[in-house]
Amino acid sequence: MKKSIQLAIFVVLSLCACWFAGQQMKAVRLAHQEKSDEHETDVWSLAEHMDSANVTIEGKAESNDYPYGYNVGAIEDEQVGRAILLTPGTEIGWEGTVSETASLNMGFFLHPWVADGSDGALLNVIITAGGTEHDHVFEVGADLQEEVLSLGEFAGEVRIELAVSNAEGWNTDCDWVILKQCSFSEGDFQGK
């Protein structure tokens, strides 16, 4: 009988210790989550600013012929989630100030609905700083490609433009470039 009472007390104490440890772990996890959420709001993302007056869109056409009702802008569907659509003849641009540690983080690919019909596309990133234009061109295919452009050499006022083009001999058929990510690291960019 004495052993069963000791065993019962041991089990109850063990359960209490596990419950307290679980509560501590939960508190740490929630504090970490809150800190992560705070940092996420500090990151400048093009998708979050598409509707602001600071972002310019050129070549936008609205029509029922387009699945989203237009040929450039923010989209959301079951295949790509929330993203930005860019097609040939369109351009997205914005201005702001970048720090010496700034980098533009991008993730892009051709929309899965039409990727098989495309012969490829080029994503042009044009950075204008101090009156000088710097072009970066990336080939876009069906697979997600991630690129990080260091902007430290442009510290100060910049204008960034994104456009879709083609290499010589390529056509514009099905060249729906999806920007899954287009953002700056925390504190590295201040939009105008």
List keywords for this structure.
elongated, 5-stranded antiparallel beta sheet, 192 residues, alpha+beta, 2 helices, 6-stranded antiparallel beta sheet, 11 strands
Task: Give a concise summary.
The chain is an alpha+beta fold and 192 residues long.
Question: What can you see in these coordinates?
Answer:
The termini are far apart. The chain is 23% helix and 40% strand. The relative contact order is 0.20. The strands form two sheets. Strands 1, 4, 6, 7, 9 and 11 form a six-stranded antiparallel β-sheet that branches. The chain has a five-stranded antiparallel β-sheet with strand order 2-3-10-5-8, with no helix packed on it. The longest helix is centred in the N-terminal third of the chain and has 41 residues, at 2-42. The protein is an alpha+beta fold and 192 residues long. The chain has two helices and eleven strands. Mean pLDDT is 84; it is low at 35-41. The protein has helices at 2-42, 46-49, and strands at residues 55-58, 73-77, 81-86, 91-98, 103-110, 121-129, 132-140, 145-150, 156-165, 177-184, 189-191. It is elongated, with a radius of gyration of 24 Å. Strand 6 and strand 7 form a beta hairpin.
